[in-house]
């Protein structure tokens, strides 16, 4: 298949219009995705309102438990969990957008241009990361108003881990979308990943409140360590969990980006 | 404006820009429990010269789109080779993509975007500057009768308008070779004629090579220099529309004579034009398919006149591509026969 037939004409000695650089192509895809997303106000509003509702309606229930978490204000524990939830859930649904784009023929039109196919993935992930960043800022700002207290460095570090996780999930979701090309396949897969991750990572309440068996099961979830690392960063408890959480974030990021890049680069995706 | 030097160098006619040998593609499918294979394209050989407009004609499921997707690097062939613009589709896909434009059968626009943005973004992904993409895009909008639609969302455009937007996207970077998969599907007759003349102009003015698929016979006839007829994944004929019609079917010559006594001499004279064939007689009408009838007609009329046969009318009907298709595959392509 890679051998050229002897009768094939030789490549013309010509100057081709240059393909856009990887960064340029990523920028074009990102700008386009962002523009379309921002044009849908519902999408922006829902994205921001959800975490606010959690903070306002669920946060107060946790306040009496502050002491058992070992903090003065429960929001210092709760906001890191919400960050991770946002990171996982928001980004995991990115694949649905990709399936819709596939249906419309957009993906194929982009794949036939000389732009890097990896840029098609990265531009989309950047959009999700930016959204997550904005949501994270709102969440932390609002949490602060409710009494959250943490060091600036701790909050920035927590946000950084969240963004890494969000990028990983966006990569996974876009990859799944490109492979399956079907919402009907994507929905159960996303749900069956998201639910156990949500429950076993101690996102809403720290697992340390629960029985030992639940903690043991939770220890298997990489996301639990990430949640713990972010909580540690917020409460000033830097330690071994910070290290584990960071390692897991990076490992997950590298693996999922690698798989995503490979899938997008494939000729027959 | 960035002018692609590439264009001036490949303009000369005669160089081969698409070259495929034994190109084939199968898809695994499942029928109930059995896993089988659909042989969508079963070994296609084709050569297209620079500056040609070539039509790929065939019924639904013949393998037109699959062939185009292989030639545009969207699909890996199961077997066979192809070079496009001089580059191998398997080992140099990036260079192939840099050299072509493609309009897919199923559209290419995001419903919520803006028409103008779609075109400009697409141009920029081909590496042309924004200003150039905007200028060329607006020019194409005017030529394709999309005036005033620059800011319109594709979801708010009619099907035919959206189709023309797809075509503008495929042409915005001024490719020297363009693949159009059923470009005129959904266009009204006036818009189709306009697109045909636009495509012809691009070829005549810029030397663009056009490879398009269609199942419209009149489109293949009116627009294409050469037609490749594909059926069940194989090319069954390839020639100019005229040559195909001459070669396969012959013109239908129909003579109507004054009275029944003249039918026999008329039939004899007509049959003599095609060795081994005899004319059909229906009342006072005598007919036969005669290859290249135009060159025989004057002699035939003179001969009949000498024999005292009074002709009421002479009718020569050129064969259509549908006659060609019918002869080649035993099936009709005509819309009303589908
Ligand atoms: N992804 C796929 N998976 C399985 N079968 C496919 C796939 N794509 C095409 N086919 C099959 O391959 C054959 C050729 O399809 P193709 O789309 O190339 O036809 P076509 O000539 O473009 O037809 P049309 O005029 O309807 O567009 C069909 O039988 C089709 O069902
Ligand atoms: Mg098709």
Automatic annotation (TrEMBL), chain A:
Coiled coil segments of this chain: none
Topology with respect to the bilayer: Multi-pass membrane protein
Residue ranges annotated for the ABC transmembrane type-2 domain, each copy included: 42-267
Membrane-traversing stretches: 41-62, 82-104, 125-146, 152-173, 185-205, 243-261
PROSITE patterns xrefs: ABC_TM2
Family annotation (InterPro entries): ABC2_TM (IPR013525), ABC2_TM_bact-type (IPR047817), ABC_2_transport (IPR000412), Nod_factor_ABC_transporter (IPR051784)
Pfam family, one: ABC2_membrane
Record keywords, A-Z: Antibiotic resistance, Cell membrane, Membrane, Transmembrane, Transmembrane helix, Transport
Name this polypeptide is given: Transport permease protein
């Amino acid at each position: 298949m890679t051998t050229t037939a002897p009768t094939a004409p030789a490549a013309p000695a010509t100057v081709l219009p240059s393909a856009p650089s990887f960064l340029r192509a990523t920028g074009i895809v990102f700008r386009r995705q962002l523009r379309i997303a921002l044009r849908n106000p519902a999408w922006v509003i829902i994205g921001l309102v959800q975490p606010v509702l959690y903070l306002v309606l669920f946060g107060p229930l946790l306040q009496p438990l502050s002491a058992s978490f070992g903090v003065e204000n429960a929001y210092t524990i709760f906001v890191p969990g919400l960050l991770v939830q946002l990171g996982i859930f928001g980004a995991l649904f990115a694949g649905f957008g990709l399936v819709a784009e596939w249906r419309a023929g957009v993906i194929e039109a982009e794949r036939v241009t000389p732009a890097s196919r990896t840029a098609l993935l990265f531009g989309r992930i950047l959009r999700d990361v930016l959204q997550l960043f904005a949501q994270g800022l709102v969440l932390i700002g609002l949490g602060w108003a409710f009494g959250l207290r943490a060091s600036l460095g701790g909050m920035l570090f927590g946000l950084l881990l969240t963004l890494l996780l969000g990028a990983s999930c966006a990569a996974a979701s876009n990859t799944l979308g490109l492979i399956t090309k079907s919402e009907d396949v994507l929905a159960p897969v996303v749900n069956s990943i998201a639910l156990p991750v949500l429950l076993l990572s101690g996102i809403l309440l720290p697992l340390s409140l629960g029985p030992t068996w639940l903690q043991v099961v939770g220890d298997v979830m990489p996301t639990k360590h990430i949640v713990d690392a972010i909580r540690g960063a917020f409460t000033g408890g830097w330690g071994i969990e910070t290290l584990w959480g960071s390692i897991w974030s990076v490992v997950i990021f590298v693996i999922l980006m690698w798989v995503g890049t490979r899938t997008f680069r494939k000729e027959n995706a | 404006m960035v002018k692609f030097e590439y264009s001036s160098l490949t303009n000369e006619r005669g160089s081969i820009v698409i070259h495929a040998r034994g190109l084939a593609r199968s898809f695994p499918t499942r029928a109930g429990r059995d896993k089988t294979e659909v042989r969508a394209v079963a070994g296609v050989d084709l050569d297209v010269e620079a500056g040609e407009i070539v039509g790929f004609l065939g019924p639904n499921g013949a393998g037109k789109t699959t062939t185009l997707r292989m030639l545009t690097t969207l699909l890996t062939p199961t077997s066979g080779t192809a070079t496009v613009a001089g580059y191998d589709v398997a080992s140099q896909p990036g260079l192939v993509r840099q050299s072509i434009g493609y309009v897919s059968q199923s559209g290419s626009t995001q419903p919520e975007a803006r028409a103008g943005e779609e075109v400009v973004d697409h141009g920029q992904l081909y590496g042309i500057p924004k200003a150039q993409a905007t200028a060329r895009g607006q020019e194409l909008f005017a030529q394709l009768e999309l005036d005033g639609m620059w800011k319109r969302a594709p979801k708010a455009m009619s099907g035919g308008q959206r189709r023309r937007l797809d075509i503008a996207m495929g042409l915005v970077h001024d490719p020297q070779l363009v693949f159009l998969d059923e470009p005129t599907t959904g266009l009204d007759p006036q818009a189709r004629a306009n697109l045909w003349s636009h495509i012809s102009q691009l070829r005549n003015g810029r030397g663009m090579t056009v490879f398009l698929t269609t199942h419209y016979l009149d489109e293949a006839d009116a627009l294409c220099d050469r037609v490749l007829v594909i059926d069940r994944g194989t090319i069954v004929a390839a020639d100019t529309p005229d040559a195909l019609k001459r070669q396969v079917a012959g013109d239908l010559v129909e003579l109507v004579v004054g009275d029944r006594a003249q039918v026999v001499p008329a039939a004899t004279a007509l049959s003599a034009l095609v060795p081994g064939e005899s004319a059909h007689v229906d009342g006072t009408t005598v007919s036969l398919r005669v290859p290249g009838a135009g060159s025989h007609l004057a002699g035939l009329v003179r001969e009949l006149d000498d024999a005292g046969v009074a002709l009421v009318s002479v009718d020569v009907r050129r064969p259509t591509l549908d006659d060609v298709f019918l002869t080649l595959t035993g099936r009709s392509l005509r819309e009303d026969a589908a």
